[in-house]
Write a structure and sequence with these properties.
This is Histidine ammonia-lyase. By secondary structure, the protein is mainly alpha-helical. It folds into two domains: 194 residues, Fumarase C, Chain B, domain 1; 264 residues, Fumarase/aspartase (Central domain) (Fumarase C, Chain A, domain 2), CATH 1.20.200. Helices cover 54% and strands 6% of the residues. The chain is built from 18 helices and nine strands. The strands form four sheets. A three-stranded antiparallel beta sheet has the order 4-6-7. Strands 1-2 form a two-stranded parallel sheet. The protein has a two-stranded antiparallel ribbon with strand order 3-5. α3 packs across α6 and α14 runs parallel beside α16. The longest helix is centred in the C-terminal third of the chain and has 33 residues.
């Protein structure tokens, strides 16, 4: 997505963070500050922890061990050391790190949860996280290792390590030891005190951050799918009557109605679409049912958006401190099940956009299903044209089907069966992101084929909207005059789709 600069600063309250504000911080590197009222809440909550330690009250995570060790009392002089041991031992993440933009979102969401005033941490911790965001220092956080309850322990431990000067960070496009960058910029490591290690790692911010990035990208992708499908309609002389408002109002789903309305808008003025009975009575489902299928995917994305907006402003650590420390309750807000289910639903919604796109690709290249040159080849037989592009699309959608298997239905007990049901929400969020990347490539393939088809039809007859899309995309991928290495075309167009937000209009 194209980066923009904002003169303003996002003020975090713990309660009002929107997905658009997350987008501004993560994609546009907008700076953040903490609302004064939230600072007061943090300080009150911290005073409660101080009182607990001083008075010797036994409270989980403050002066006890963790998980199965919750019955082990920790002496007052050891409570700070307990926190450092916690994050080092829990920093067991493996595999490739999260993208920097996800790491940035994790920090932002962690701050927003901590400043609600239920976690008992010092402002020094919040200030350190704020500095990292504003200085664009991003912890290197391995993607694998979270069960999604008790929250994202392993990923968030790698974040916590950085606050103390350990671990690794991204800075100016390279990876460094955290200490190197802290020394360079004069940032002092923090020393974790009672409860702070647990407050930092007990939460759902890794799965939620990845989920937010997924949503922000898939929202754009879903609009792009409509633009590309509109051009495919023209390439196949599709029947526009299928988008008549009465059909969709008769069913009543708002998202379906909206897709049909946008398809009509995109195809307005086109001389390539047809009406029923002119060439045929009805189209195949992959054309006729675009509003029904795409609309259902939009339903899943709307559901996901609602859950992400709630979770982005939620207190998800444990225990939580209420009434200035008079009430401290161990609960289960760290359990990622709401986000796990949302991510699994999102996976299906994205995968279906790719599934129906691949079927449209087949209709564009298969000479038994259209009157276009076989496989859109410039010289059928001598040249294969788009034949293997359809293979690639089929491979990607097949991979998506395996990744779309719900992660949330799996659970493996941990911590000697104390933590006997977990969400696997972070796995779901990660798989959703992979499905998203695969689906963008499928749509890139459809766009390549659709452009080739409308050239055969006479591109001058395109609608003004699809003509604009054609002109922009042709700057990325030229017309197919003879066979070439199409992998490069697919990847270039995929990158262009990733960076181009034509959610409604493309400038001519």
């Amino acid at each position: 997505m194209e980066k923009r600069r904002f003169d303003s600063m996002i003020t975090l309250t713990g309660h009002t963070l929107s997905l658009q504000e997350i987008k501004r911080v993560c994609y546009d590197n907008e700076r953040i500050e903490i609302a004064p009222a939230s600072i007061q809440k943090v300080e009150k909550s911290r005073n409660a922890v101080k009182s607990i330690v001083k008075n010797g009250r036994t409270i989980y995570g403050i002066n006890t061990g963790f998980g199965k060790f919750s019955d082990v009392k920790i002496d007052e002089q050891d409570v700070n050391e307990l926190q450092q041991h916690l994050i080092r031992s829990h920093a067991c993440g493996v595999g490739e790190p999260f993208p920097k933009i996800v790491s940035r979102a994790i920090m932002l969401l962690r701050i927003n949860a901590l400043i609600k005033g239920y976690s008992g941490i010092r402002m020094a911790i919040v200030e350190q996280l704020t500095t990292l965001i504003n200085e664009q220092i991003h912890p290197v956080i391995p993607q694998q290792g979270s069960l999604g309850a008790s929250g994202d322990l392993a990923p968030l431990s790698h974040l916590a390590l950085v606050l103390t000067g350990e671990g690794k960070v991204y800075y100016k496009e390279a990876v460094y030891a955290t200490k190197t960058i802290f020394d360079l910029l004069g940032i002092k490591p923090v020393e974790l005190k009672a409860k702070e290690g647990l407050a930092l790692i007990n939460g759902t911010q890794a799965m939620t951050a990845q989920g937010v990035i997924n949503y922000l990208e898939v929202e754009t992708l879903a609009y792009q799918a409509e633009w590309i499908a509109a051009m495919t309609m023209e390439g196949l002389n599709g029947i526009i009557d299928a988008f008549h408002p009465a059909i969709h109002e008769a069913r009543g789903y708002p998202q379906q109605i909206d897709v049909a309305r946008r398809m009509n808008h995109l195809l307005q003025g086109s001389k390539l679409v047809t009406h029923q009975g002119e060439m045929r009575v009805q189209d195949a489902y992959s054309l006729r049912c675009i509003p029904q299928v795409h609309g259902a995917s939009w339903q899943s994305f709307d559901y996901v958006k609602e859950k992400l907006e709630i979770e982005a402003n939620a207190a998800t650590d444990n225990p939580l401190i209420f009434e200035d420390g008079q009430t401290i309750i161990s609960g289960g807000n760290f359990h990622g099940q709401p986000i796990a289910l949302a991510m699994d639903f999102m996976k299906i919604g994205i995968a279906e956009l790719a599934n129906i796109s691949e079927r449209r690709v087949e209709r564009l290249v298969n000479p038994q299903l259209n009157d276009l040159p076989p496989f859109l080849s410039a010289k059928p037989g001598l040249q294969s044209g788009a034949m293997i592009m359809q293979y690639t699309a089929a491979s990607l959608v097949s991979e998506n089907k395996t990744l779309a298997h719900p992660a949330s239905v799996d659970s493996i007990p941990s911590s000697a069966n104390q933590e006997d049901h977990v969400s696997m929400g972070t796995i779901g969020a990660r798989h959703a992101y992979t499905i998203l990347q695969n689906s963008r490539r499928v749509l890139a393939i459809e766009l390549i084929c659709a452009m080739q088809a409308v050239e055969h039809r006479e591109k001058i007859k395109l609608s003004s909207s699809t003509s604009s899309l054609y002109n922009k995309a042709r700057q990325i991928v030229p017309s197919i005059k003879e066979d070439r290495v199409f992998s490069e075309d697919i990847e270039r167009l995929t990158d262009w789709l990733r960076e181009t937000d034509f959610s409604w209009k493309i400038s001519p």
